[in-house]
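Re: Re: token formats

Sure, here are both.
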Amino acid sequence: MTVHSVFLMDDHPVVLRGLAELVGMEADFRIAGATTDGAGAFAMIDRVKPDIAVLDINLPDVSGLALLRRLRGTGLAVRPIFLTATITPAQVSEAVANGIWGILLKESAPDALIDCLRKVAKGQRWLSDEIARMADPVWDEDMAPGLSALTPREMEIAGHACRGLSNKLIARELGASEGTVKIHLHNIFQKLRITNRTALAAIYYERAAEVKGDGSKG
């Protein structure tokens, strides 16, 4: 059984303790870290590198959306989830646009959080029907993004990555910094809903085979 690491952030200590106890009871999850300090959450996530981070969107010292954007701009493979008391349609849309993996309300049943965590751990996104309808465009979990979701630059980087080039070598090929390549790869993984180069190669070469097959029919 694979055990997935989970990071927890909530500005209410009682809520945070309850979350830690709830998640800690499940054999397939372990608590990698927890904090009530929104401002220091990014540094902690960067240090412990959890598989999943459960975050509050409305915090007194930092916006959960700002933290989400910052996570997306790094090479961290963490999958963020928002657990919040309230959320607006605009916040849902922005969260979806910035690669959120799940959103649920604190009024949800405890089992809903565990279900969400397990689905996200498997590489699937999770939103309740009510929250999904708030998104613009409307969220559809069955939409499987393909290579068409990538920009030309991202396609170029994906091709180099699938040929086995390191980030350093890709950067040299493109005349860019290694940090820029890492950011592009992170965005590629988010768009394709994957977490590693192996999954990227599977999608890339499957599409290449389809194109070759279509060409041979002509």
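Second one below.
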Amino acid sequence: MSAEIVPGAHEWHIPPSQETGISPGRKTRLDDAAALDRSTGSHFPSALRLEIESAAVDNNVDRSLVIGSYRASLSPEKAAEIRRKYEDRMFYIGCIHGGSPELLSHLNELADAREADLPDTVFLGGDLPGAKDLSTVRQKKLFYDNLMNRVNLLVSQNPDISPAEILGSTAGAAGTESPTIRAGAIRLLRFAIEDMGGTKLTDPGDLTPLLSLARQQMKAYPVADLPAITDETPPDGVLGTYISWIRQAVAEPPAVGLNSGTWVKTLPKEIRQNYMDQYEESARQLSLPLLKLKGRGVKIVWIEGNEDMPAGQDAISHGLDRVFDTQKYLEGMGINCTKEISGLRSKATYHILVPFNELKYLGNVPEDRLELIADEVSQARSEGLEIIMLAHHHLDNRRHAPGRKPGKQDVLMIDNLKSLIHRYRPRQLIYAHQHGEMPEIPDVNAKYAYDHTMVSYLPLESIGEYDAPAKHPAGDRDFAGPDQPVKRIL
């Protein structure tokens, strides 16, 4: 594998199947081989050994996986006990943003699992705060993908385009919820009233409450050069001006133009209060399975993402009577957030934890702390522990946005992440931050390489499982070693 991934030469590593194919027919042959060995009185099970070797070759897996699966077919309880003794089981979870019912259900099932099936550690990849049913993610998608990315592209192509032409354009409609930009603006305003504010509109065709909201926002943060809006202004006049206002309003000086967060800041207080209350309820629901897992001896490790920092909710909480801080709430229950680059040992691994903010400002991280981690990595490697880096940022922008030039912040953070990889040489990098699947990925379990590091990405609410063997040869190991990498289970 090349150290750098170049456009047009994306190399993917698809791990062998993590199933050994112990079908009924295969199990019968293994049983027959074992019986043959017993009948001959042999203490060297040659027939069984040959059948295991054959199964491993047929399924392109290490023979230890065949042995494990065969043992599990004979005694699932005993196999689980052995796994707990000789393996280090870890679950990794991507961005949560409050959590959907599906994810919460999965976490509750995990928290109620048999003792032998519990993971040793659950790693939370960051961005836990959010409103109910992933409304936080939906709001960003409606603001950017459904509306403003399309508007900005049109204006960049034709600076003189009129508001009417913008509203009627279908550019960029593929994969969005709105055929026209006009429909995108209406969808965003409706979402603010119904999903964020909790007020259900009875007449889908009545634009009056939507236009009223737009007027309120524009009045609260006026832009001098825009046309005046009166009660007689037709709907498309209001919507056209509203889109221009989003591109020019100043909610957090000196930035001109609103982003998803500052647009939320311009919403009326009552909408933002209801939205903030949803954050509290989501955090309470998320805490239940996490606390149950913690109470059963599972270590919960949470690295800080960009949305975990208190500033991530400032736009919502601005001027509210009741303010909720997800991080403070969870930490009060003993679910602590890792805010500094640090190391964590387990019986089979050494994790290097890389939160968003310290990665962003890597130059400000004390050198003696980074050097201490280097010493710990060296010691862990000499003991045969696997070195794994968990970060809240992507490594290769082209994996997530092919053909799109990354912004300055992404370039900086990717360079910083590469420097940490070169310094510590982890066998695996696992990261969250982006939400969707990588567009060109051939398989959800496919990996890519950077130098000698295998790279695994955790999309929004995904869960990856990794069973690290507790005994490894000391020293470096290439990413194409015999044990299996992180496997997506959700």
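The longest strand covers residues 87-93. Residues 110 and 477 are 31 Å apart (CA to CA).
- S.
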